[in-house]
Amino acid sequence: MKITEHIKKAQGKTLFSFEIIPPRKGQHIQKLYDNIDPLMEFKPPFIDVTTSREEYIYIKKNDGLLERRITRMRPGTVGICSSIMHKYDVDTVPHVLCGGFTREETEYVLVDCHYLGIENVMALRGDAMKHESYFTPVENGHHYASELVAQISELNKGRYLHDIIDTPHPTDFCIGVAGYPEKHLESPSMEADLRRLKQKVDAGADYVVTQMFFDNKKYFEFVEAARAIGITVPIIPGIKPVSVQRHLNVLPQIFRINLPDDLVKEIEKSSNNNQVREIGIEWAVQQSRELIAAGVPVVHYYSMGRSDNIKAIASQVF
Length: 318
Ligand code: FAD
Fold this sequence. Notes:
The protein is an alpha/beta fold. It has 11 helices and 10 strands. Strands 1-2-5-6-7-8-9-10 form an 8-stranded parallel beta barrel, surrounded by 6 helices. Helices cover about 40% and strands about 20% of the residues.
């Protein structure tokens, strides 16, 4: 079922969902199941599965020199989606990226999703590769997520690339896109970023999932500003519980988000990561309760490969 249908069916009740990351190449899918199992009692209608970009790996050779190889360390998104969908009878949302993919490769991924009965996809640009200062698309790849959304919308109308098909059988994907309550790191202003979000919705996006935020005020203001410029689709808040002291520096650095000072002070006072984890859970519980009271359609949790803290939060609020 489409995410938008799940939201409609819930008739105002806030739904629980979460995002998982494929295991690293060489690991077993059981690791993923072990993290999903404890969360299924909260009846998520859908689970997101991220896609990772290719990256350069440096391998030390016998002569001491480094050999550079390019690889994708966490492949398998679509396969994982299909497997989870059938194992747990839940909808899955593969993340589809512009970065590293040509338009043709994107079409093949979407055709795979369609064959497998996957009805939702999250359309994202992806980040620049680690050695790049700016995001660069591959030749014949998309530069912005709005272009990817447009390609998926075309496919939903039965328009495949190059028109080299026998029958124009249309897909029917529900399309999610990313939104940034504290603006995307590359955007010159919040207003400019919101106009880009509107472009994605105008291109066919059906719903928005936000970047993590730790101050609900940012989300509420973001939704208000989005509504003011005519974005009417559901805006799903994304929540990540802080779990290690290092997050104080890493999260603002990677995602360009702010942590409220009350949260920072609490974490700074703690002497070990077990305490940080408890603080992160408590903070996320308070955030979730306020969001649910405000009537958000879904609270979407970033599990980052671990589910114990998400379970602790969900058991208090769902
Ligand atoms: P876009 O919407 O394309 O925006 C990127 C930047 O370009 C923004 O600053 C925007 O304002 C600007 N912009 C957009 N259109 C134009 C234009 N026409 N001209 C000029 N500027 C423009 N990354 C992964 O690698 N894998 C994942 O699975 C993944 N999942 C994510 C899930 C969520 C919910 C979120 C919030 C992010 C996720 N990301 C993921 C990270 C995401 O790929 C990065 O944040 C990326 O830098 C931007 O992606 P986007 O889709 O928002 O890009």
